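A brief tutorial aside. Many learners find it easier to grasp structure tokens once they have seen a single protein encoded end to end. The record that follows does exactly this for 5-methyltetrahydropteroyltriglutamate--homocysteine S-methyltransferase. Read the sequence first, then the structure, and try to relate runs of similar tokens to stretches of the chain.
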Amino acid sequence: MNTTTAVPAGRLTSTALGYPRIGPNRELKRALEAHWSGRLDADGLEAAAAAVRAGMLDDLSVLDTVPTGTFSLYDHVLDAAFAVDAVAPRHRRETALASYFAAARGDDAAAPLEMTKWFDTNYHYLVPEIGPDTEFKANPDKAVAEFLEARERGLDARPVLLGPVSFLLLAKPAANAPADFRPLDRIVDLAVVYVEIINALGRAGAGLVQLDEPALCADRTREELAATAEAYLRFNEDVEIVVGGGYGPLGVALEVLRSAGVEGFALDLVRGRSDIETLEELQSPHVSRETYLLAGVVDGRNIWRTDLARAAADIERLQRISDRVAVSSSSSLLHVPVDLAVEHDLPEGLAERLAFARQKLEEIVALADPDGPRDARPESPEAWRDAAVRERLAALDPGADRRVPYADRAAAQAARVPLPAIPTTTIGSFPQTAELRKARAAHRQGLMIDADYRARMRAEVAAVIAEQEHLGLDVLVHGEPERNDMVQYFAEQLTGFATTAAGWVQSYGSRCVRPPVLYGDVARTAPMTVEWTAYAQSLTEKPVKGMLTGPVTILAWSFVRDDQPLADTADQVALALRDEVRDLEAAGTAIIQVDEPALRELLPVRAAARAAYRDWATRSFRLATSGVRPETAIHTHLCYSEFGEVIDAISALDADVTSIEASRSKMEVLTDLDRARYRSAVGPGVWDIHSPRVPAADEMAAALRLAVAALGPGRVWANPDCGLKTRRYEEVRPSLAGLVEAARAVRAEVA
Ligand code: MET
Ligand SMILES: [Zn+2]
């Protein structure tokens, strides 16, 4: 008989779907980086990892059932690949650990796995490569060991694995796979190996295993659902299975999975509340009083306190369906920082409205306690509202987000700033040297006075302008030396934002970000960038682009208030940017770039919600950028690949020039743009700045020729894929020299 039955019938219990795994003080980050630089051996790394796992269990032990296996040295999708031995031959090394990091980070011998965004979040996972001949083999050691670590402490534990369907849907075909091969074709082979892993967990004492299938929170085809049923039908062994969604409603997948014999679900009741109705309609025989229902009422992706009254009401509805209900988080708590208790400098009233991972566990425990608190969420304080912003938005006339037609603007812009065919430019940032970072840190800590800091930054701007003039670029940038981060820089200057001291969240591997908290109405109190741009322009005859971050990206990379629609918050940010854009124009800036690299990231997982997203996202961008005269050019910049699903939105931004990451996709995006009736100019990235490699000039010229063939010479700009802040001058100088040379060569051909 199994010893763990996570949810005793009738009694409401507590659990969570996963926990931050980098350590409260980013201990794992430091250990990883020490290991990679050769300062810490494998045993030392394992000791640090064990300490982080122990800390996770310490925190989680307040729950009736703890999730296990959600620790990761780098990424949980990579862990899943190793659990089934789906390791590309080029990444196999002497030890499993070395293979793991070769796949994650690459080395001299092999490129790493591709990295991409995890659903609609800012977490990045590694994309497994699966071919027809990938040999799956069960490696249950990590899952079993982490389960036993929890059991040894006397905790009731539920192992968590990435499910087989999502694993294959997140994978891409291996390079040698035939054109019609899809990773999901391998579902049966993979399910067999999952059975072995599940059985190994069962032998170790697990009665219930959670298989996360976040990919089933997206629209799935009939075939994909059939493949899901086929896999899950194989799992009716001794061990019970709950399927976790975590990123929206599971929808029709609920019935498919129940029919295939799954014993229950972990529901996202923050974004997927419609699953409650779906379950109510399903009822018997699909849902019974024995069905496990993990009620994800505590938001795993945002940091606001839970409305306990509303959560309790949702839980009660589930209890009317089943006796086995547990209170849980909506997704893994991976996406939130560990502890609010270390934040001492938050604005008045904010801390009591926030919950980080530890506080979320307290909320879960409180909700599972029949006598626990059931408070509704308090209204935001009046002081966080800005009547002027609200009135201004309400009074906007319907055409406030429109400019004159592109053709008229293009003519006016060409007359104001004559440029050669295929103008050359960069995306904004120049290398952030160690010395620059040191100056910013010293200034922040009060060790460098404002005047010295400004002088240091001005010197950097002057050096960056001189570099660009020397290289012969056509449209210059100031280089962004004063910006710590493209969102935080603005958040620090706008009202309604707070920054945290230690609110770190894993972005990928050892890299963490500290998203600002957007809690109140947003307004600009003074110009934010004009001084730097104007100074840069004073040093050169060439045009200098103004450089701003767009509303969607500011929202995507912050923790955003959830007491009003995102669209309303985006419009407030847009108005603040609109004033900045106008001030830049008034200061003589002829070209203003508003970056939206996160445009795709916020795209809803379900197609039904996408049109509304595209509407508000593009409207807020246009609101930010449409306040200028026709002769002022608005550029935008998009990166992070795979724009297929937002191609229409790119046209709807109505920018005059769009620079877009394209070098790795071999300019494919151009045909897509053309099909989406995008008619203004494009700067397809011709240099992959994610790699230290210096591209040859003729390689970049070849890419530009493709672009010219697709769009005509009048609509093409030459630029890198993204900003240069992570690169070194030794790479930047020859690469940009080559870019200028390439543009000149192609320019001569089209003249
Ligand atoms: C992630 S997009 C970055 C754009 C920004 N202007 C830069 O050059 O760094
Ligand atoms: Zn970029």
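Self-check: The longest helix spans residues 450-471. If you spotted this yourself, you are ready for the next section.
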